[in-house]
Specification:
Layout: H1 4-8, H2 10-15, E1 17-18, E2 26-33, E3 36-41, E4 54-57, E5 63-71, E6 78-86, E7 99-104, E8 121-129, E9 137-141, E10 150-157, E11 164-167, E12 177-184, E13 191-195, H3 205-214, E14 219-222, H4 233-240, H5 266-272, E15 284-288, E16 293-297, H6 313-324, E17 329-333, H7 350-358, E18 363-366, E19 372-375, E20 391-395, E21 413-417, E22 422-428, E23 432-439, E24 448-452
Parallel strand pairs: 1-15, 13-14, 16-17, 17-18, 18-20
Antiparallel strand pairs: 2-12, 3-5, 4-11, 5-10, 6-9, 6-12, 7-8, 7-10, 13-22, 15-16, 19-20, 19-21, 22-23, 23-24
Length: 454
């Protein structure tokens, strides 16, 4: 039987429960063929290699391939863009190094460009091809270079003397292609897309993690420290809104400590409105996966809300909310971790963890530490508990500068990485959950796993 105190909170619980819409994900694929391509050769700096059926890429002598695409007709946001090349069907076309791709200035002519007047690379590396074999198709993510309609000009460079040969546009259908996926991601009510420590006008990493969201359906769950430095209305408008803010309609956020550098976190509550829960409190809940999963969002800025101790307003609300839930499985998220190998753990949130543990919750998602860490299921005191324990994730990888060090590895820590930005995809099934860490383009760390509901 529910306690009288829990029953007294039922109306409050219902008032803080949000419905999540489930529009479909519509994606359009556009294929663009190269409008210009050629290569240049340092051993013949005045020679133009237009009209060749192959694009050579190598080092010593230096051979650089250039490609241009006229992107047009896009009417929806770019989700993903891939450069597709085919190595030539000759025995010497393969290489241990398929080349590094950069943007280059677009003002070059395939009929006149030479090594002596070649365009230079601009910006950072978009990606690289590894070992390639003859007569094979290879793709690389160039989403960072495709923001909409216009000319995309690329250069492919290598330091390997064992060069690679790709089919040029003169080879016909096997020539270079740019594949662009556009659309408006919807809300899949079986997926959470989570990361914290996100946006700043001083970095581009938040745009790169936003591009991960662009291609994924799901509920976007910022894990606090949504925008730096102080969570002002101006920072939300100028730094967060152009990146993660384009997914605002499917976002269910948690508040971080940087938001409270603006008194009362008014910039945060003003930007997200009802989606952030009751103003000044910041805790709320909603159901996903057809009611099979209950999702609880909490405020770990305990000193700003009267504390997180047992008997505090939030802790009482949490216990009543959990008692009222009919879902089989539960996931909660907030900003500060209870457990962390990178320091900065916050023990004042232990009563919240205890309430979730008592109710049989499965997963807690946090940020604050600018790194990724996954723990085995454990009790509120940090004891391994594979039968009833909660699995905690730290996902402070949303865009802010990273913290690579783990000075004191905590018990039950299973996976740690402090050198990658990305988003955690948590898929909620009827009696289990699956996770996948998705890094930004150009970074390779990922990890996957599955857990069972209690």
């Amino acid at each position: 039987m529910k306690s009288l105190r829990a029953c007294a909170f039922v109306l409050t619980v219902l008032a803080a429960t949000l419905a999540v819409p489930t529009p479909a994900l519509a994606v359009t694929t556009s294929v663009f063929h190269a409008t210009r391509d050629t290569y240049v050769n340092s051993s013949s700096p005045a020679t133009n290699y237009n009209d060749q059926r192959q694009l050579a890429v190598a080092g010593d002598p230096d051979r650089i391939a250039y490609l241009a695409f006229a992107v047009s007709g896009l009417t929806a946001p770019v989700l993903r863009a891939w450069l597709r090349l085919r190595t030539s069907n000759v025995s010497h076309a393969g290489s241990p190094n398929g080349g590094q791709v950069y943007r280059v200035a677009s003002a070059w002519s395939e009929s006149t460009v030479t090594y002596a007047d070649r365009p230079g690379a601009t910006g950072t590396e978009l990606g690289r091809f590894g070992r390639v074999r003859p007569n094979s198709v290879y793709e690389i993510d160039v989403t960072a270079a495709v923001t909409g309609n216009g000319v995309l000009s690329l250069g492919i460079y290598s330091i390997s003397p064992d060069g690679v040969y790709y089919d040029s546009r003169e080879a016909g259908a096997t020539g270079p292609q740019l594949i662009v996926y556009t659309g408006v991601p919807g809300t899949d009510d079986t997926v959470l897309l989570a990361a914290g420590d996100i946006a700043s006008c001083a970095t581009e990493r938040d745009e790169q993690t936003a591009r991960v969201l662009d291609g994924e359906a799901g509920v976007v769950t910022p894990l606090g420290d949504v925008v730096y430095e102080k969570g002002t209305p101006e920072e939300f408008a100028n730094c967060y809104d152009p990146t993660w803010g384009r997914h605002k309609e499917r976002t269910r956020p948690a508040v971080g400590n940087h938001e409270y550098l603006t008194p009362g976190a008014t910039g945060y509550y003003g930007y997200f409105g009802a989606a952030a829960g009751p103003p000044g409190k910041g805790w709320y809940s909603y159901d996903l996966a057809g009611g099979q999963w209950h999702v609880v969002v909490l405020n770990s800025n305990c000193s700003h809300i009267g504390g997180c101790h047992a008997g505090s307003e939030q802790e009482q609300w949490l216990r009543a909310d959990l008692a009222a839930s009919q879902a089989r499985c539960t996931v909660a998220y907030w900003h500060h971790p209870l457990f962390a190998s990178g320091g900065r753990a916050r023990h004042e949130v232990r009563p919240l963890y205890q309430a979730l543990y008592d109710a049989g919750a499965e997963v807690v998602l946090t940020g604050h530490n600018h790194q990724y860490e996954r723990f085995a299921p454990q009790s509120p005191t940090g004891a391994a508990d594979p039968a009833r324990g909660i699995r905690q994730f730290v996902v402070g990888t949303g865009g802010r500068s990273l913290q690579p060090d783990f000075p004191d590895v905590a018990p039950n820590s299973e996976v740690r990485n402090g050198g990658v930005h990305g988003v955690l995809k948590l898929t909620l099934l009827d009696d289990q959950y699956r996770w996948r860490f998705m890094p930004i383009a150009g970074q390779s760390f990922t990890e996957v796993g599955t857990g069972i509901c209690h």
